[in-house]
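USER:
I would value a second opinion on how I read folds in token form. Give me a protein, with the fold worked out from its sequence. Write it directly below this note and I will take it from there.

ASSISTANT:
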Amino acid sequence: MARSEGPNLTHRIVEALGVAIVSGKYSPQNPFPIEAELCTQYGASRSVLREAVKMLTAKGLLSARPRQGTWIQPEEDWNLLDPDVLRWLLERKITFAVLRDFALVRLAVEPQAAALAARIATPDAKRAIRAAIEQMALADKDEADPLVADIAFHVAILRAGGNRFFAQLSGVTETALRFSIRMQDRYKGVRRASVDDHRRIADAILAGDAVAAQEAARVLIQEALDLIIKAEAEKAFEPTSKPRRSK
């Protein structure tokens, strides 16, 4: 029985094909299926299937031309700043390299974003930062979700400086942090971020101290990067190994 047509089916097809492409199910040795085959597989019309292919093409995963077919793009052409692509990539078994590379992006961006926020954050932006810190404090008492609060804090800083490019990183930062924070907590044997470390950044921003905000953010992200590198070196999450606690 065919599924109902519409946006939900389109997005289900995008999700299924995106995961299949990133996981390597389709490759030069196992080419991307033809349109008719995919329409039958997903119970979709050609228009719905073509819309899904168009979305995957925009994400850099596919290339399609009339009368020439559809093929998989090389990984270096994938749009890793697309939250869906990054999520699919991080859901693969080996994720350390991606987490490490994104931590380096954060190290380049977030300290600057914190400094900018300290200089020009609006009252609304400051309220968002305060609210995120308050949620992190509640999470420390098991009264809020620690992962949600941690992500909200970093996203609030990216948006607080009013820089449209920093703000555009909010979605991909949220996606990467969901994996990175879980990995760090599992590796360290804890499940909460340090509220004090995050509060130092918030206090500096709220006080208008750009230098202190930048340095506090740099220290926090450098620690995260160091932990990822250490966990990768120790192969902490290979199938044959168990999670280890930091000393």
Remarks:
- The CA atoms of residues 129 and 156 lie 6 Å apart.
- The first strand starts at residue 62 and ends at 65.
- The mean pLDDT is 87.
